[in-house]
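Bumping with the actual sequence this time:
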Amino acid sequence: MESAKEGLSFVKDSFSTLSVLMPVVTKVHGSRHRELKDVNRLVSQLEVGINGKADSKELLITLNQLRQTTNGYAIPSDACEGFKKEYRLLSKIDETIRTAVK
């Protein structure tokens, strides 16, 4: 089991990866997947919450919205490798944060 500190480090590193990945995925798939705009907004909100030490209730609300928007991080059939990586990473971030705030 990873420590809370390791989990936080993973989440922060993941935001760096997502900051590169999300604009590309949105550019390629945004016209067919309008939800990506909301995903980007929610990820930004989550990152601000993590860095600003939001309480666990606020983080969980954002994660719930992200799960709903992505249909549980379900990867669309037309997803490229970058899109797949984005959703897999978001799912792992979700799992890591939920474990840490239990």
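The tokens above came from a reply further down the thread. Residues 50 and 98 are 12 Å apart (CA to CA).
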